[in-house]
């Protein structure tokens, strides 16, 4: 199933009840159907507990979430119907005292598995879902897969799993018979959820979509997704000030001295530009806005206070360690009041936490040369001297 062939045809028997058809694959990609986690080198995961405890309702048809312990993030989405009400966080075999039954019964998933359901209502009532689930990544990955099953009173559903590159072009797809969680007239009598995914021989999977080819009676339920990112475990992930993401280039931009960060995750990361008296932060992708900023407590600033200013929200004085949220998201702001001053070309001095309203963003952080108090005094004395000379 690898190589440069423009057509991939095969019939793969995955189980007694599941047949998989490998369909068209572009010339520049070689993809493989995954039916077991052991088939690919997954090195990361998406942890649904980041969304909150079981029964947490996610009311929107899309949300951002980190790829655990990496610099990557994902946008998780479904194609909503008119009455769709988002997602529901579930746990297999967990008793919900409010409603008197478990949030998702065994044997579909082992007890304790963390789950996501593509309808915001708890199993058994409310909400309608198209059953789709898509994942867009802030950086391309090698592979992705997860266990899935369809909702209550649902028999097996023909489902398409398709991967796409950064341009939105299809890398190929597979059609599978995904299990349902019951047989006709009998609730929760079918076998367990099954694992499905796609891997590539190059790091080119920018998104992946699971979509039913027939209208399901209920939404899709999935367990913890596994991801092969291909990113070194020692690479900075931006999840703490000590692992802050460095600028994309090792030197500042020559025309204006700006440090450039390109195609980074917008879900909230620490970035580490040089330390100077002030900065101008500006997004450069034309789509994103800053949502929050947190400034460090580790640089020995004399008063641990900084000035954040933008043209829409005005000026705010915040302490280091405080998460400042822009009342109106902005594409440009400044931070001043950084003291003491050190070398403005040291890229390891001033870790800053930033989050955005897009999954993937590019931005610059440009040092602002603000005169030190002593320099201001000299400038003032010079002006006085100049004025005296003019009077004479």
C-alpha geometry: elongated
Helix content: under 10%
Oligomeric state of the chains in view: single chain
Total count of domains: 2
Which range does the strand content fall in? 35-45%
CATH topology of the largest domain: Jelly Rolls
Explain what the structure shows:
By secondary structure, this protein is mainly beta. The protein has two domains: 10-228, Jelly Rolls; 241-368, no CATH class. Helices cover 5% and strands 40% of the residues. Strands 3, 4, 5, 8, 11, 13, 18, 20 and 21 form a nine-stranded antiparallel beta sheet that branches. Strands 1-2-15-14-19-12-7-6 form an eight-stranded antiparallel beta sheet, with no helix packed on it. A six-stranded antiparallel beta sheet has the order 22-31-24-29-26-27, with no helix packed on it. Strand 6 and strand 7 (73-77) form a beta hairpin. It starts with 9 loop residues before the first strand and ends with a helix.
Task: Please write out the topology.
Layout: E1 10-13, E2 19-22, E3 31-34, E4 44-45, E5 57-58, E6 62-66, E7 73-77, E8 87-91, E9 95-96, E10 101-102, E11 114-117, E12 133-141, E13 143-150, E14 157-164, E15 170-178, E16 182-183, E17 186-187, E18 194-200, E19 205-212, E20 220-222, E21 226-228, E22 259-265, E23 269-271, E24 278-283, E25 290-294, E26 305-310, E27 314-319, E28 323-330, E29 332-336, E30 352-356, E31 360-368, H1 373-391
Antiparallel strand pairs: 1-2, 2-15, 3-18, 4-21, 5-8, 6-7, 7-12, 8-11, 9-10, 11-20, 12-19, 13-18, 13-20, 13-21, 14-15, 14-19, 16-17, 22-31, 23-30, 24-29, 24-31, 25-28, 25-30, 26-27, 26-29
């Amino acid at each position: 199933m690898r190589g440069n062939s423009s057509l991939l045809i095969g019939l793969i028997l995955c189980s007694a009840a599941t047949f998989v058809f490998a369909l068209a694959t572009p010339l520049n990609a070689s993809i493989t159907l995954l039916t077991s986690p052991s088939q690919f080198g997954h090195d990361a995961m998406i942890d649904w507990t980041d969304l909150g405890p079981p029964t947490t309702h996610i009311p929107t048809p899309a949300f951002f979430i980190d790829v655990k312990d990496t610099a990557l993030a994902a946008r998780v989405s479904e194609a909503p119907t008119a009455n769709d009400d988002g997602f529901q966080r579930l746990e297999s075999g967990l008793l919900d005292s409010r409603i008197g039954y478990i949030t998702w019964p065994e044997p579909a998933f082992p007890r304790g598995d963390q789950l996501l359901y593509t309808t915001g209502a708890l199993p058994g009532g409310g909400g309608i879902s198209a059953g789709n689930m898509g994942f867009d990544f802030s950086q391309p990955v090698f592979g992705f897969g997860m266990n899935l099953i369809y909702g209550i009173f649902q028999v097996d559903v023909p489902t398409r799993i398709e991967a796409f590159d950064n341009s939105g072009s299809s890398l190929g797809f597979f059609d599978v018979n995904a299990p349902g969680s019951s047989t006709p007239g009998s609730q929760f009598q079918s076998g367990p959820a099954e694992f499905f995914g796609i891997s590539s021989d190059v790091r080119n999977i920018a998104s992946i979509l699971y979509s039913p080819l027939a209208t399901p009676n209920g939404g899709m339920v999935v367990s913890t997704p596994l991801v092969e990112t291909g990113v070194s475990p020692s690479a900075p992930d931006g999840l703490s000030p000590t692992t802050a993401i460095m600028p994309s280039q090792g030197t500042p931009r020559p025309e204006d001295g700006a440090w450039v960060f390109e195609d980074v995750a917008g879900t909230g990361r620490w970035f580490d530009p040089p330390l100077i008296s002030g900065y101008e932060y500006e997004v450069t992708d034309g789509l994103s806005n800053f949502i929050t900023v947190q400034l460090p407590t580790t640089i020995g600033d004399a008063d641990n206070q900084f000035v954040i200013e933008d043209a829409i929200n005005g000026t705010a004085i915040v302490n280091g360690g405080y998460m400042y949220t822009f009342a109106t998201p902005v594409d440009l702001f400044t931070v001043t009041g950084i003291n003491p001053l050190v070398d403005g070309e040291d890229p390891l001095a001033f870790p800053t936490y930033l989050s955005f309203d897009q999954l993937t963003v590019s931005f610059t952080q440009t040092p602002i040369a603000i005169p030190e108090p002593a320099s201001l005094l000299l400038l003032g004395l010079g002006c006085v001297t100049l004025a005296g000379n003019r009077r004479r």
